Predict the structure.
Amino acid sequence: MAAMLEVKDIHCGYDGTPVIRGLSLEVNRGEIVAIIGANGAGKSTTMRAICGLLHPERGQILLEGEDISRSPASANIRKGLSYIPEGRRLFPKLTVRENLELGAFTVVDRKVIDERLEEMFALFPRLKDRSTQTAETLSGGEQQMCAIARGLMSAPKLIMLDELSLGLMPSLVEKVFETVVLINRKGITVLLVEQMVQEALEIANRGYVLQTGRVVHSGSARELLDSDEVRKAYMGM
Ligand SMILES: Nc1ncnc2c1ncn2[C@@H]1O[C@H](COP(=O)(O)OP(=O)(O)O)[C@@H](O)[C@H]1O
Ligand SMILES: [Mg+2]
């Protein structure tokens, strides 16, 4: 069976400056796949291209066999893609509840929105306690939970998480990764980008290592964790 997401030899960049130069990857249904690599390697650019915020100049992106290379981000959300960008991007002056509701903008049925809110509050009880507070009053970890929950409100098939661990204390990083595993167990396929390479590979099935816009290593998470090259370059060992 074809992969849920197939990225085939894409090239893209900003204002004519190439950033991604012939990148291919696949994500199968039910997997957690990690994209790792140094700062500036093109991880976020790859995520933006997949979700439709940026269109590749060459190559193809297929979601369940359908070519979405030219499809805008809003349409891709309806097709089941959800992207949690780096830096959380919550609306600071809106309440937790309002931030979550915005994640369900594709849904018109009030009942469905309320059901999803309840699911999110069950998954993240802290958000329930804080539902009427503005997002800016949340701690870093709570903001990250809120961003993840907002991304889940569209009931995605594939959730893309960009540097979830950024700026969080180590104890919270662990919590956030546990949450990713929980989400995956609910049947949502996960593509994540991380600089916390060891932690990401510990929860992932497979990984891709990016360097200047290309995949330089790929394999099972175990293979990458055991690779001397990967350990030296990305885990400081
Ligand atoms: N909006 C942008 N405009 C121009 N160049 C950008 C933009 N975003 C990223 N870049 C450049 O693209 C390259 C890859 O960036 P990015 O995809 O953010 O890397 P990563 O997420 O791996 O740190 C970097 O050289 C960066 O400077
Ligand atoms: Mg990035």
